[in-house]
Design a protein that fits this description.
Blueprint lengths: L8 H13 L10 H10 L2 H13 L5 H13 L3 H14 L4 H13 L3 H18 L8 H10 L4 H13 L6 H13 L3 H14 L3 H11 L4 H14 L4 H13 L3 H14 L4 H13 L3 H11 L7 H13 L3 H14 L4 H13 L3 H14 L4 H13 L3 E4 L3 E5 L1 H26 L7 E6 L2 H9 L9 E3 L3 E5 L11 H18 L5 H15 L9 H8 L9 H6 L4 H22 L1 H12 L4 H8 L3 H17 L16 H6 L4 H13 L3 H14 L9 H11 L3 H12 L6 H14 L2 H12 L6 H13 L3 H12 L6 H15 L3 H14 L4 H13 L1
Parallel strand pairs: 2-3, 3-5
Antiparallel strand pairs: 1-2, 4-5
Length: 838
């Protein structure tokens, strides 16, 4: 999973509100430096007053005029900013910064022609001076050159980096270089740049830029930087907007509105804040308000592509990819050269399964801007995916690495077919198109296809609606997850996202998928365990109305897993108490645009009452994990008295059992583990007493006891490869061919890229007279370079010859066996036999 925050969101919001109240109504600073500091601290009206007096009094120095214009732009007084910028150019037309400010003001005045004129004048000025400008103009020169289309890396090195090393360093250079990196999705460089700036300048804009750099990957660091920015400037609009963005991600829409209100109090015309309000209206299914806020956002700058780009970006992050793509197309109608919208449109189309157009657009962006990290990653990935093999049928398109497709591609299609038959029928969904499933052996490729950037470790799969991306077992060594479980989970998302037109909160989407994992196979998905029992009994349940936030701000990875489990438990509760039809009705309500809490309440009970009922349901389930067992965690200061009063405590008994095993006291450990396992055996893998019990039985040479313990454990495990490898070994020794086949299939669902399960299927199939099973297994075994290839070729040849309809292949296989082992007598005899029949 991605990084999650441990910072208190409530504290950040409190800080923002509290600091707002401390901003003084005015400041007495009169010097240029002091007034500049007032600007950075958010005293915009005071700056306007002070700088305005200086300008009106005949002080025509560009610095005063710049401070005035920047403050006017910040608070949304665009007309005054424009007239002051033009007046500043009348005073001195050679300053690039003033041309940049005039261009910005012109855009927000809706004067596109005036903005183009300013850009042309900058071009002529640069040509006339042949790039020779005072050192203090380095950052402005770089910004102008970027607008004129110069290669960004050249600008970065020759303008911004030089200005950063000046004495004193140029603040604008750090900000411009960091913003350039953010624009190109080079978030690592952006973070490095803003941190370098912060070492020299204590600045809200630097902290705000650092927060943006961390936003895609580390919400903890992002919130830390936002807190720092708001401490320096409580009216810092970019930080307030980023906090609103974060809250929208967590479905904290009312809290997001509060942050937008603070931003709009500073600047009632700020386009991004108004665009966010349009997004919130869309998410609340209020199209009239959405159009109203979009119109407000475009009021000052009618063809501003950033407005629809931002709306589309947020809708796509909410899995509304079709609506997101439509918004990006509107942005491109305003400005066909606006690369952020073209890049985002490419990603939206890829997530919608419109791959030909999506890849074409990604390549266009890369051709126009080879510094853009996302488009570079996508183009590189497309070249890699061109080597993939495509498997398809009427319902699915599966793209996999060639060898993986040969090994288990048929099983992928079979699993997906079973999932479709079960889940589409259950939820009454007819899918409008085939589902695309891309499976990646390289986790970096998975991340790029999924997120546009490498990183975001921890995801096994992601569903966008009709497109699934998944990590293959090759990317998860040494302990891969059950890939069948993963694909079932993700295909359930396909069903529910299509059922709701992608209008569902994350918690409900994840909850249904995890619930359906358990319905398909009791060993799949998250189930009640000791950690979840403690969460519930200690009062750590998240209220239903806030469950999506539990995915956004978990304390740690275990808390995140509990969010998945609790969500699935809510679904289980709803189905048990109110029926599957009620759940389907809630999904239909979401499709029609209803709020999830209102939809659930309308179909079940008022939310406060429902939350009480669910809490009681969850507590009963937790308390019933192992009735009568002492499952309480020992306190850190447990003493002899506590030990005496808890003689059968599960944790203490497990600790004692491990100590005896460490001392090779197998009989004593065995007796203790027998007792423990009768009490509770619900933990995973090596933490389960059944696994330890099997080890003691093996060391006591009690094969039947080990067999019984491992079989019992296998009934509750889905991704414990060592368990199934041992059961295959024991099945072979017992000549239990059906068991060997069963456990080989279980191991294939975990790791289909190792020889063990294929060798077991081949052996069991041949011994049980299931020749087709054995032939298929030997063919796949040979793809994995088995330790004895001659034997595998020979056995395959023998089975093909016995079947009687594949003599040419049988001959080829026996010849390959003899290439490996020329003196292999059985192979020589088989070759003669085959020739006699040809």
């Amino acid at each position: 999973m991605p990084h999650h925050t441990t910072t208190s969101l409530g504290f950040v919001l409190f800080l923002a509100a509290a600091l707002w109240l401390t901003v003084p109504g005015g400041a007495s600073a009169q010097s240029l430096e002091e007034t500049g500091q007032d600007l950075l601290r958010g005293h915009y009206e005071s700056v306007i007053k002070t700088a305005g007096k200086k300008v009106d009094g005949g002080d025509y120095r560009g610095d005063w005029r710049s401070l005035l214009i920047k403050s006017l732009l910040t608070v949304g007084r665009y007309g005054e900013a424009y007239s002051n910028a033009l007046a500043g150019l009348n005073d001195y037309s050679g300053g690039l910064e003033m041309h940049l400010l005039a261009r910005q003001a012109a855009l927000f005045q809706g004067d596109s022609a005036g903005a183009r004129r300013q850009l042309l004048e900058m071009k002529l000025l640069i040509e006339r001076r042949q790039g020779a400008f005072p050192s203090e103009d380095a950052a402005a020169l770089g910004q102008a050159l970027l607008l004129l289309g110069l290669e960004p890396r050249l600008v970065l090195e020759n303008c911004f980096r030089r200005a950063e090393t000046m004495d004193p360093p140029q603040r604008e250079a750090f900000l411009a270089a960091g913003q350039l990196a953010l624009d190109k999705h080079d978030f690592t460089l952006a973070a490095e740049t803003f941190r370098a700036g912060l070492k020299k300048l204590n600045d809200a804009d630097m902290e705000g830029g650092l927060a943006q750099a961390f936003a895609p990957s580390d919400s903890d660091e992002m919130l830390k930087a936002i807190r720092a920015a708001l401490a320096l400037n409580p009216r810092h609009i970019p930080s307030l907007l980023l906090l609103a963005d974060y809250l929208i991600n967590g479905e904290e829409y009312d809290a997001a509105e509060e942050q937008l209100a603070l931003a709009l109090k500073v600047n009632p015309s700020r386009p991004e804040a108004l665009a966010y309000r349009a997004v919130l209206a869309h998410l609340r299914n209020d199209p009239q308000a959405e159009q109203q806020w979009r119109a407000e956002a475009l009021k000052s700058w009618p063809d501003n592509p950033q407005v629809d780009y931002l709306i589309g970006l947020k809708l796509a992050q909410k899995y509304r990819f079709a609506e997101g793509a439509a918004a990006q197309k509107r942005a491109l109608d305003f400005d066909p050269t606006y690369l952020p919208a073209r890049r985002e449109l490419a990603e939206d189309l890829l997530r919608l399964g419109q791959e030909e157009e999506g890849w074409r657009l990604a390549r266009q962006v890369h051709t126009q801007d080879d510094y853009d990290v996302t488009s570079y990653n996508l183009v590189t990935l497309h070249e890699e995916m061109a080597k993939f093999e495509t498997l398809s049928n009427a319902d699915f398109i599966v793209e996999m690495a060639p060898r993986e497709a040969q090994l288990y591609g048929d099983r992928v299609l079979d699993l997906l077919g079973r999932a479709k038959a079960a889940l589409c029928s259950k939820y009454g969904v007819d899918l409008p198109q085939r589902t695309t499933v891309d499976i990646f052996p390289d986790p970096k490729d998975f991340a790029v296809r999924t997120f546009g950037l490498p990183g975001n470790p921890g995801y096994l799969g992601v569903c966008f609606g009709s497109v699934i991306t998944a990590n293959s077992p090759a990317s998860q060594a040494p302990n891969p997850a059950n890939w069948q479980d993963v694909l079932w989970h993700e295909f359930c998302h396909v069903v529910t996202l299509n059922a709701t037109r992608n209008r569902m909160p994350r918690w409900l989407s994840e909850g249904i998928s995890v619930y359906e994992e358990r319905q398909a196979d009791p060993t799949w998905g998250e189930s009640m365990n000791l950690a979840y029992r403690d969460f519930i009994l200690n009062g750590d349940l998240t209220p239903l109305g806030q469950l999506s936030g539990a995915f956004l701000t978990p304390k740690n990875s275990r808390s995140l897993l509990f969010a998945y489990y609790e969500s699935s438990l809510v679904v289980e509760f709803l189905v048990q108490r109110h029926g599957l039809d009620t759940l389907r009705s809630i999904l239909r309500d979401l499709r029609d645009g209803q709020d999830v809490n209102k939809a659930i309440s309308a179909r079940t009970a008022p939310m406060p009452e429902l939350e009480k009922q669910f809490a009681a349901f969850a507590k009963a389930k937790a308390a019933g994990l192992a009735p009568g067992a002492d499952l309480d965690k020992p306190p850190a200061d447990a003493d002899a008295a506590w030990e005496k009063s808890h003689p059968h405590n599960y944790y203490r008994q497990m600790e004692q059992a491990r100590q005896k095993m460490d001392g090779r006291q197998w009989a004593q450990a065995n007796a203790l583990l027998q007792t423990i396992a009768q009490t509770y055996h619900g933990e995973r893998r090596g933490d389960n007493p059944l696994w330890l019990l099997a080890e003691t039985e093996r060391n006591l040479t009690n094969s039947d006891g080990e067999w019984a313990a491992l079989q019992k454990l296998a009934a509750q495990e889905s991704d414990f490869a060592d368990l199934y490898a041992r059961l295959i070994e024991m099945s072979r020794g017992r000549k239990d061919w059906q068991a060997e086949t069963t456990y080989a299939e279980k191991l294939l669902a975990i790791n289909p890229l190792i020889p063990t399960p294929y060798a077991a299927l081949a052996e069991a199939g041949a011994a049980a007279g299931k020749n087709d099973q054995a032939i298929d297994a030997y063919r796949k075994l040979l793809l994995l370079e088995p330790p004895d290839p001659a034997e595998a070729h020979f056995q395959l040849a023998r089975l093909l010859h016995a079947r009687g309809d594949s003599e040419s292949e049988a001959k080829r296989q026996v010849l390959q066996a003899l290439e490996e082992a020329p003196r292999y007598r059985d192979a020589q005899r088989l070759l003669l036999e085959i020739k006699g029949h040809s």
